Amino acid sequence: MISQIPKPIIEIIQKLEAEGFEAYIVGGCVRDLLVENPPAGGPKDWDVTTNAKPEEITKIFPASFYENKFGTVGVKIPKSDQDSIFPLADKSANSSKSNLSEVVEITTYRIESKYSDKRHPDEVRFAKTLEEDLSRRDFTINALALRIMEHGTHNMKQKKKQSKNKQCSILHAPCYMIIDLFNGQEDLKNKIIRAVGDPNERFDEDALRMMRAVRFAVTLGSDINIKRTKGPRKLSKETPFAIEKKTLEAIKKNARNLKLIAIERIQDELNKILVSDYAAEGVELLRELKLLQYILPELERGVGVSQNRHHIYNIYDHSILSLKNCPSPKLEVRLATLFHDIAKPETKRGEGAYSTFYNHDHVGARVAEKILKRLKYSSDIIKKTKLLVDNHMFYYNVDEVGASSVRRLVKKVGLENIDDLIDLRVGDRLGSGVPKAVPYKLRHFKYMVDKISHDPLSVKMLKINGDDLMKELKLQPGPKIGAILDVLLSEVMNEPKKNKKDLLLARTRDLTKEDLPKLREMAKEKIEEKKEEEDQEIKAKYWVK
Fold first, then answer.
1. What is the pTM of this model?
2. Which terminus of the chain has fewer CB atoms gathered within 10 Å of its CB, N or C?
């Protein structure tokens, strides 16, 4: 459903038309206005195409810059002027603010020549018509243009023009028109990714388009709030959008050209796939289309490699299903979950039910680091992913591992990373076909982490200490001071408002009259009772005994 178009976009279109030029909103933003499940907040990037030349555009928009040879002018938009006030939807639609960027790109109609490097056109020639411009775009769903007519007018000339081209359709009001020359709306409705014209030509122009096809297949129209079942999630046979057969075959045929694409661009598309709800399907689709071998060849080495009696899936399938079942949306956790067994093929010893993979976690951490450096990830993502892979085999049995062992793991991994490590473990378990993601011992581990993370009940919580007692009340050093502080702590636990220095000193004057055994008896019962109460609350939180 069409929602709203930001005011600055309308003004750009109007200014270009006022100078006698054609101007259309074009590309992905039009697609996102029409898609069944639009992105939250509406389109994030807005693009305009026009028959005005770059130098003519810069004259119309002084706050602009033109620093490329592709006919694209960047027009700066004030951040404060981002309200969507020009509705294209019916009035009942929910209005929201657009995530309009600071710069709107205005591109002159163009025709591109041969792409020798499979990334950039050897030369860019400006076109005369919108049809020529749309014909060079990647997929039909992205080859849509939106024309904003003068409000309240729709003259006969425009009506005749529309009747000749049945693929142009008026939306909601006579002053808005979608230009659809390649049946993009039909493909959007049927959820199909189809290349414009000859798919081999489109992928020969820019090989990254092959990864974009996969990314669109798993992200467009996807309901990111899919309810998770209690048991393991299986790999879907279908993605939100399907890649049309000829387009799919052309990807397989041209897959090797992905080697020519800049790593940064590949990483960006991979990230978008991995953080989607169909991340596992996206990775598997990359493999089926022969693209994965040029991105993550280490992952493909696990295809068909059997494991031992603890697993029902081979290494690759287990890795994909672990990703599918990872409950975390974080990129680093998704990467770590996908890579947690990346070194199993090279560490495997023996065959059958009793084969081993000793140190695959530590070797895998180094392999993951190598992969991420090759793909030019940031040092923070590399560090976090490596840490999670390195520690994903942490051992925990309720009756065997005590608080001290948990403290050592928390110190090694960092308390801030424990939840992420557990999410990796959940994905790992469910990816093995285990019916329960969080069994009793993992819940108990969470309880222990929570328990050791709480500030212990201590006299340090008091607004008074032993030095105060000796200085203010002239008490002599000795065990009686500790006993008095314990009594004060037990009383403050029940009435926190008493934790004030003057009140505590006054109470101490009374307590000094009691002997040491009596003081210890007064404190012990209340403190132990409070500790047990807190422990029971934490246990209940994780359903453990």
1. 0.77
2. C
Compute the Cα dihedral for 219, 221, 226, 232 and give only its sign. Answer: negative
Cβ neighbour number for residue 494 with a 10 Å cutoff: 10
User: Where is the domain boundary, 150, 185, 220?
Assistant: 185
Q: Are residues 224 and 170 in the same domain?
A: no
Bridge partners of 47, per DSSP, are 105
Question: CB of 131 within 8 A of CB of 168?
Answer: no
CA dihedral 191, 197, 198, 203 (to 10 degrees): -70
**Six-digit token string for 311:** 């697993």
Whether residue 273 is predicted with pLDDT greater than 60 in this model: the reply is yes
Residues 383 and 484 placed together within one structural domain of the fold: no
Q: What CATH number should be reported for the domain holding residue 87?
A: 3.30.460.10
Q: Which of 325, 333, 327 is nearest to 430 (CA)?
A: 325
Claim to verify: residue 176 and residue 105 sit in the same structural domain = yes
pLDDT higher than 80, residue 56:
yes
CA Rg value for the chain:
32
Structure letter (DSSP) for residue 215? H
Last residue of a domain, one of 155, 185, 215: 185
User: What is the pLDDT, as a whole number, of residue 257?
Assistant: 96
Using CB atoms within 10 Å of the CB of residue 479, give its burial: 0 to 12 exposed, 13 to 18 middle, 19+ buried. Answer: exposed
Among 315, 34, 314, CA closest to 178: 34
279 with 318, same domain: the answer is no
Contact of 429 with 437, CB cutoff 8 Å: yes
Measured distance CA(185)–CA(35) in Å, rounded:
9
CA-wise closest residue to 202 among 217, 192, 212: 212
Can you give the residue range of the structural domain that contains 224?
191-295
Instruction: Name residues whose C-beta falls within 8 Å of residue 528's C-beta, 6 or more positions apart in sequence.
Output: none
In order of 232, 238, 271, 521, the CA distances from 235 in angstroms are 10, 9, 19, 62
Please spell the DSSP secondary structure of 260-281, one letter per residue: GS-HHHHHHHHHHHHTSTTHHH
Pair 325, 396 in one domain: yes
Rounded distance, CA 179 to CA 143, Å? 9
Is 282 found in the same domain as 165?
Answer: no
Helices (H), 326-439: 331-339, 344-347, 360-374, 379-391, 403-413, 415-430
Does the pLDDT of residue 415 top 50, yes or no?
Answer: yes
> What total of structural domains would you count in the chain?
4
User: What pLDDT is attached to residue 217?
Assistant: 96
User: 346 with 430, same domain?
Assistant: yes
SS3 471: helix
Note whether 37 and 173 are same-domain residues: yes
Farthest-apart Cα atoms in the chain, separation: 105
Q: Tell me, what amino acid is at 193?
A: I
